[in-house]
Amino acid sequence: MRLRLRLCSMLVLGLALAVPLAAPSPARAQGDPEPGGGERVELRILAINDFHGNLLPPAGGIKLPDPDDPEQTVAVPAGGAEAMATLITQRRAGRPNAIFVAAGDLIGASPLLSGILHDEPTIDSLSKMGLEASAVGNHEFDDGLAELLRLQHGGCPPGQPDCADSERFAGAGFQYLAASTIDDATGQPVLPPYHVREFEGVPVAFIGLTLKGTPGIVVPSGVAGLTFKDEAETVNALVPELRAKGIEAIVVLIHEGGYPTGGINECPGISGAITEIVPKLDPAVDLVISGHTHKAYVCEIDGRLVTSADKFGTLVTEIDLTLDRNSRDVVTAKAENLVVRTEELARDPQQTALIEHYQKIVQPLAERVVGHVAAALTKEETPAGETTLGDVIADAQLAATRPERASGAEIAFTNPGGVRTELPFRNGGAVTYADLFAVQPFGNSLVTMELTGRQIERLLEQQWLDQPKPRILHVSAGFTYRWDGARPPGERVDPASMMLHGQPIEPDGAYRITVNSFLAEGGDGFSVLKEGKDRVTGPYDVDALADYFGEIELVKPGPLDRIGRVD
Asked: Between vectors from CA 307 to CA 48 and to CA 46, what angle results, nearest 5°?
């Protein structure tokens, strides 16, 4: 049943501000219990999303408004499993009714400390932290369903079917939920659709699901044989089943989100898929904990509380619900995003021991210096969508597949979603393998193929077609083009502006181009790449980047003149 919400907004200086919001209450169905009038049960939910294996605090922390100049932002050190575990322990203290949940993408695209070990360290860390249930995110499918099920239930690492007992992973201490992900062979969800927990006799259901667009943003082979159903339709179909079990309090953990403006506890002008999904949910849904967009917000959407906690463990959302014993429903809700401040929170000793254990395993590889940068390589985009880091990665992929290395590549393209973090300037510009792994953590191999000039034009037009926002591909040196944002999608690239080393790209000409294996399978909606001929598989993307840094004495940011925008 819909409820009155009290959203708690936190000022950057650490002060809490309660903002009352009145939500319309729909007519009760015949037989629905009257809310209120009985004893209350106070429940605290702590939530995260998009952790992505960041056991150590991410470089750059989180950007918050500058207390001295709110028009500007400052980077606040935040995140990491040690500080997050301490904050969760603190916020659960004195609360007999508390639960820690997540909205997906706990793993995948992880830094080397977790990613190189199949993300077992992250599953281990969150299990020890007391995580109880999580939606499955799209990145949980990066290595396919079988690997996700291994991480859930335990088993030998990939490629080691006969491992010793000491090498077998024990599995997650929490439950992944996948209400909308259906195994085509059985017609059933691949993991439980929901998790129910009772608090002083009042049951609360947590439904978990990922976005229906998952097949378009992961490697197609990773989701072969799976169907991702509509999010709202899936939830609504479960409501009668839950109510038949006497459950009225319903929380949705969904790996889909929105794009807000404002602070971490606001959402003025929020847009995106979540704003379309929430109004379609059955009125029985009381709370939506979201993710995927790597944004922070505390919102009222369609009279319901909707939250998201940024990314990489920099925030924990604290949600306080009041449950009524008689109606067994939620009667009030408030939320606040708490910054996981590494400089203020003590390190949890259990997490410290876990991190040190895994660091000893990966340290020789992680600390190997592979090269140097003259300045930071960033993801900051020009108006045309070009970045200094994207240019370097594309150049590295071209260098790894150039003619003398047998693949014959002339142009390299890479997707912005595959570039996970910036490459900062530190330690005199020294760059380690761990730094590069954080930038390119997916372990995609490089694929060189033949496309015509006309197909390359279609590839560039697909940067806008059926995309939630433009995905401007990074391009290698020697290739240039212009685009016009004022023109309709499908007509934004000027074919005459497409040049390779100053020579026009001929529509019927044949060109050897390199992309990563995710793109080669049509990932991120770039379906034209599935048409590429004479494919040759090359090295892994991160190894190509490491080789490139090893070959160049000092990598410098470029002039950002490959992609032009005319509007």
From this structure: 40
Residues 6+ apart with CB under 8 A from 537: 445, 446, 447, 517
Q: CA-CA distance, 10 to 335, in Å (whole number)?
A: 9
Tokens linked to 148: 């996700």
pLDDT tens digits, 342-384: 999 999 999 999 999 999 999 999 999 999 999 999 999 999 9
| Domains along the chain with CATH numbers | 42-353 (3.60.21.10), 368-565 (3.90.780.10)
d(CA 355, CA 292): 26
DSSP states of 442-494? S-PEEEEEEEEHHHHHHHHHTTTTT-SS--PPEE-TTEEEEE-TTSPTTS-B-
pLDDT tens track for 94-143:
999 999 999 999 999 899 999 999 999 999 999 999 999 999 999 999 89
Residue 212: helix, strand or coil by DSSP? coil
Q: Which residue has the tokens 């491992």?
A: 163
Angle at 294 between CA 544 and CA 194, to 5 degrees: 110
**pLDDT surpasses 60 at 8:** no
Task: Give, for 27, the enclosing helix (H) or strand (E).
Answer: none
Helices (H), 193-265: 231-244
Q: Alpha-carbon torsion 523, 527, 528, 531, what sign? A: positive
